[in-house]
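Sequence in, structure out.
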Amino acid sequence: MAPHDVPPSPTVSPFLLGEPGAISRRIEALGVPRPVRAGQHLYRQGEPSSSFHVVVSGRVRIHMLRPDGTVRVISWAEPGASLGEGVCFDGGLNQVSATAITPCELLTVGRDALVAAARDDPELLVEVVRRVSHKQRVLHLHVFLDGLPARERVTLLLGHLVEAYGDGALGTSARLSVRPPVDELALMVGLTRVTLSRELSRLVAEGVLVKDGRSIVVRDLPTLRRRVDAVAV
């Protein structure tokens, strides 16, 4: 394979987790508190925005309505994560929508407030660029996933779930601290609910996964990681 044909790296996680550190705290200090109800939009696809958001509590789904009418879940934002920076600064329209899936507390940071603060603290803009770059890699991950068979899509998704939510992920097994609905997981990798359920059942039959009530336990982490590495090559 020629260098220019190398697929984008699938190692970036689609789950937007907390951004620790002093710079993050300085960005959050610029925000205005905003409560959001479950089901309420933070912003909508096709609309402009002059602000971005930091999740204080709750969970937000970032998703896209595609031309064929299907929905693709791009990522989830957890407490401490920010979202909406790109359109806030490029002056265009949102390419995705963001919806609270639980009651949320947010901090809304206006573009003008950040630019003004960055005159004395330019690291703020460097941090925003870093976050926008990360989200660009998440979109590359989705392009990569669309070219894979269903089984390999599910393998990569489970690998990311373990890295983001695995309890005991340094051992030989890990229990996921969250269990998103199968429908949500299917939308993240462009599969139907039936197809995703079938692939999860195969992994259970192979002894890689165990379903414990409403929890998912990856019983054989080494095997899962080998499969993830094989897909990523």
